[in-house]
Design goal:
Layout (H helix, E strand, L loop, with lengths): L14 H16 L11 E7 L11 E2 L4 E7 L4 E6 L2 E3 L6 E2 L2 E5 L18 E6 L2 E6 L1 E2 L5 E6 L9 E7 L4 E7 L7 E2 L3 E3 L5 E5 L8 E7 L3 E6 L7 E5 L9 E7 L6 E4 L3 E4 L4 E2 L5 E5 L10 E5 L2 E4 L10 E3 L6 E5 L4 E2 L12 E9 L9 E5 L17 E9 L7 E6 L14 E5 L14 E7 L9 H7 L4 E7 L7 E14 L6
Length: 504
């Protein structure tokens, strides 16, 4: 990747600091004060404002960089232009041999990358003339997210690179070793948004390799497979979806999906899978529940990929209303969805609550009091940090929870201990789809709550030792009730899981 000089302007710098910088380089510049300040203005070079980097001259600069312009006869500055656009400057930081300016860093400032008609230059207008100097304000570097094509590919077939910032292209080529150029690509078209680049497959592009896009600012690459790229899985809507509900998987290269294998037990055929036009999302209906935990695999034109995350982690389930854990008591017993009324589908039994909260029951409406079967230390090691765990469950909201909230207690009953101190309880919870990060209605969704919101212990072993009960309870109330409110909610497959670690 290209090496560039990069100094971002820091907001909130004091005038004193700027003056210190100004006088530091002014003193140095004036030692060789060429010109009386009234002759033809000349820009000799541009450098950073740090005196220690005085030798770091350049003509490429990132937006937001503070620079020192060194030259002759620069007094009486009236206007300053970058890329043909007038920018603000402080005349206080101007001498006959120098000027401190900041390259704009806002969306209104046009870059020459997406606007090649702009002059890549710095222009200083004084009361006695104008000085011009080459200055290239760098555009964001390119990125390639996928290849759009019809596979398998043959020489002459059209392909399109999909990405962003396809500005100021220097070279485009195919390579079999990601280092040496196998075939240069010179005939290509770029759309008006600089997000799509289309060309014909070259006669030497017959084996797996790489396509390299070298732009002025940076470069980008993507693997090229003429027979089709291997699918990539990045996320799933739920790791334990309710049978009969829709499952969504996101990723890349879901091209001609032939099947989805569920934990090695059964398959969803390709004809039952819906794939987006961009081949980065697919959906299917969960046909049945596997009998053991495992992994999902997707087979497409480019091969087979296994999802890293465990699918249907039965060992981590603490309550499923079908034999793991148990329902202790509440307003409504567990039931099986009838296909006619919400939630329409269920994996065996689920629990639910339906009705109206009014002034007579706003603090104590319906609840699910459960006895949990906690995962053993063979499943979750005792040393596992609570900060690395979360409570997961499937939830169905028929109506929005605009006002009603949920309280959840874990490892103890709701209320106070013998000393009158309240137990650690999550309050004011509204179910949120962990996949979309929104509270949704009319569908089953996976909800995730950090375990640090529910218990005070540091490790899983400490919780198992310190808990005073095996209860995991949901209480629904509306403490700020203003008018009677209908609510309908269903819950299933409650589990303790390792928090998914986001990749940097």
């Amino acid at each position: 990747m290209k090496k560039i000089i990069h100094t971002i302007i820091q907001n909130g710098w004091s005038s004193l600091l700027l003056l210190t910088i100004f006088f530091a380089f002014t003193t140095t510049s004036c030692k060789n004060n060429e010109g009386d300040g009234n002759g033809t203005p000349v820009i000799k070079y541009i450098r950073l404002t740090d005196p220690a980097l005085a030798d770091s001259t350049f003509t490429d600069v990132n937006p937001g960089t503070m620079i020192a312009v060194i030259g002759e006869n620069l007094s009486g500055v009236m206007e300053v232009y970058i890329n043909g656009q007038e920018i603000s400057f402080n005349s206080t930081y101007s001498t006959p041999t120098s000027l401190i300016i900041s390259v704009p860093y806002d969306e209104d400032f046009k870059l020459s990358g997406p606007n090649p008609e702009l002059p890549a230059e710095l222009r200083i207008v004084t009361n006695h003339g104008t000085a011009v100097f080459p200055l290239h304000v760098l555009s964001p570097g390119p990125s390639i997210t996928r290849i759009a094509a019809t596979y398998p590919l043959q020489p002459g077939d059209s392909i399109t690179l999909i990405g962003a910032n396809f500005y100021e292209i220097q070279h485009l080529y195919y390579t079999t070793d990601s280092v040496n150029v196998t075939q240069e690509i010179t005939d290509y078209q770029i759309n008006s948004d600089f997000e799509e680049l289309t060309f014909a497959v070259g006669d030497q592009m017959t084996q797996d390799g790489w396509i390299i896009l070298d732009c002025y600012t940076d470069d980008a690459s993507i693997e090229f497979k003429p027979n089709g790229p291997k699918p990539i899985i990045t996320n799933i809507s739920s790791i334990m979806p309710v049978v009969g509900s829709e499952v969504t998987i996101t990723g890349q290269n879901f091209i001609e999906v032939s099947n989805i294998n569920i934990n090695g037990e059964f398959e969803v055929p390709g004809e039952d899978v819906t794939v987006s036009e961009s081949f980065d999302e697919l959906t299917f209906i969960m046909p049945q529940a596997p009998t053991h935990s495992g992994h999902i695999t997707i087979t497409s034109i480019g091969g087979t990929t296994e999802m890293e995350e465990i699918f249907y982690p039965i060992e981590n389930v603490i309550i499923d209303y079908d034999g793991i854990g148990s329902f202790s008591w509440g307003t409504d017993p567990p039931f099986v969805a009838d296909g006619i009324n919400p939630p329409y589908v269920s994996t065996g039994n689920c629990i639910g609550a339906k009705g109206t909260i009014d002034s007579s029951n706003l603090f104590w409406w319906k609840q699910f009091i459960n006895t949990a079967k906690w995962p053993s230390t063979d499943v979750i090691p005792s040393y596992t940090q609570i900060s690395e765990l979360e409570l997961q469950f499937e939830c169905y909201l028929e109506l929005p929870m605009d006002g009603p909230v949920i309280q959840i207690s874990m490892g103890h009953p709701n209320g106070n201990d013998t000393g009158g101190n309240p137990y650690f309880t999550l309050e004011n919870y509204v179910p949120i789809n962990s996949f979309t990060e929104e509270s949704e209605t009319g569908k089953w969704m996976q909800c995730c709550i950090p375990l640090t919101s529910l218990i005070q212990e540091t490790t899983w072993g400490e919780f198992l030792n310190n808990k005073i009960s095996d209860e995991l309870n949901f209480y629904i109330n509306y403490s700020s009730l203003t008018q009677p409110t209908d609510i309908e909610i269903y819950v299933d497959n409650i589990r303790i899981m390792q928090t998914k670690q986001e990749e940097n």
